[in-house]
Amino acid sequence: MTLAEIYQYLCVKLSHTESPTSEAWELLRHATPWQPKDLIARPQADITPDAVLQLKQWVTLRQQGKPLAYILEKKHFWKFDLAVNEAVLIPRSDTECLIEWLLAQFPEDSTKTVLDLGTGSGAIAIALAVERPHWHIIATDQSETALSVAKHNAMTLGATNVSFYLGNWFAALDQSVPGVFDIIISNPPYIANDDPYLQQGDLPFEPKIALIASHQGFEALHHIIALAPTFLQAPGLLILEHGYQQQAQLMVQLEIAQYQNIQGHCDYQSNPRFVTASKPLRKESP
Ligand SMILES: C[S@@+](CC[C@H](N)C(=O)[O-])C[C@H]1O[C@@H](n2cnc3c(N)ncnc32)[C@H](O)[C@@H]1O
């Protein structure tokens, strides 16, 4: 088959997706040396039988709904490609907003200890580690398989200032890590288990542990808000990603817990996406 023929074939087979042409090129770039400009420059270029076979297998998986990131076993996030598999959430570009905001708060030569709760593929922890080499990042997850993906990514990307711990939120921390942090950041599961959104797009293929939380999606968020003050040093910062309809309730929750400087932030689509707050002031004794 020629480049023009296989491109045409892929676009037709991927017509059910949101962006058939860009998905076709994403697959082509992984299976062949050709780039979009080659479609004009050399449309008759020969595609090897092995590459055609590979592309046909991938497109069949895509037609069955399997996310492109799981097919190619990688996802671009921040400034690098992360290895991903079905054990981890596919990192979302909206999560980059949290990283962008946080980096803007502290200069490059600052020294901070950061806790990333529920690290998944390591997306947040590794981006922070790479951007702030003097920061010490502790990343946790309750999923052992997710942690091995995150460790692999940290190694591949040279993020040597991240350490990984297995366990349930703060319970993952043991004696070997600092007891208190300057920054706690998390993108925890926050979707209610009856939310129809779980049936859409890539979500049916992603791990439930990464998506679903009880109490209408608030359980993990509330747990982190309640326990974070014990693990934050003054004036430590808490940063939480959340669903676009959860911000108002979370801000009330943070106020009740007496956090300071509570702010709500939007993502790149202008949807409410994350909250930031400083450690609550200690109550003065009467
Ligand atoms: C929404 S995903 C976020 C992954 C990654 N931080 C990101 O932004 O792409 C939530 C992560 O929390 C982890 N998780 C769920 N319950 C947990 C718990 N009780 N303790 C620690 N991690 C948990 C999941 O395994 C998953 O990796």
Report on the architecture of this protein.
The chain has 286 residues and is α/β, with parallel strands linked by helices. It has 2 domains: 3-64; 85-278, Rossmann fold, CATH 3.40.50. Helix content is 37%, strand content 19%. The chain contains 11 helices and 9 strands. It has helices at residues 3-13, 20-31, 38-41, 49-63, 68-72, 95-105, 123-131, 144-156, 208-211, 219-231, 247-256, and strands at residues 74-77, 80-83, 113-117, 136-141, 162-166, 181-186, 232-241, 260-266, 272-278. The strands form 2 sheets. Strands 5-4-3-6-7-9-8 form a 7-stranded mixed β-sheet, sandwiched between helices. A two-stranded antiparallel ribbon has the order 1-2. A hairpin with a 2-residue loop joins strand 1 and strand 2. Helix 6 (95-105) packs parallel to helix 7 (123-131). It is elongated. The N and C termini lie far apart (82 Å). Residues 88-89, 91, 95, 118-121, 123-124, 140-143, 146, 168-169, 187-189, 209-210 line the site of S-adenosylmethionine. The site of S-adenosylmethionine has 22 residues, from helix 7, strand 4 and helix 9.
